[in-house]
Design goal:
Layout (H helix, E strand, L loop, with lengths): L1 H9 L6 H8 L3 H13 L3 E4 L2 E4 L23 H12 L2 H4 L26 H4 L1
Antiparallel strand pairs: 1-2
Length: about 120
């Protein structure tokens, strides 16, 4: 995933899946493999024009809205964390109150504990 992000950081325009794979020196299958995860973390956006990072720009005219387009109007942080964990965890870990990630939604829910996790924390900070 790091090479995909680095390539998008250095790209001046959106990249097609093929262009991104070529520049990253990976297969298009690898790009597809990480697409859902990168979109779930709101790191990239993909549309008919290609792949791009979701980083904000310095000027208001270039800046996208702060809220992710993936979130529905009435969706809460817990809803987003629930969807995220459902995507990245196998079913047996998702329902495990002793799992460091799966337990984030158990009472009392504390999605902020995901920030301390060594794997997902760096992506969420």
């Amino acid at each position: 995933m790091g090479r995909i992000i680095h390539t998008l950081l250095t790209a001046e325009n959106r990249l097609s899946q093929r262009e991104l794979a070529d520049r990253t020196d990976v297969s298009t299958r690898t790009i597809r493999k990480y697409r859902d995860r990168l979109e779930a973390l709101d790191i990239i956006r993909v549309d008919e024009s290609g792949y791009r990072l979701t980083l904000s720009f310095q000027t208001a005219s270039e800046r996208d809205p702060v809220l992710s387009s993936l979130l529905e109007e009435r969706q809460t942080l817990l809803d987003a964390v629930d969807a995220f964990l459902e995507t990245i965890l196998p079913p047996d870990r998702y329902g495990d109150p002793n799992d460091p990630l799966g337990s984030a939604l158990f009472w009392p829910p504390d999605p902020s504990r995901l920030l301390d996790h060594p794997t997902v924390g760096p992506w969420l900070r």
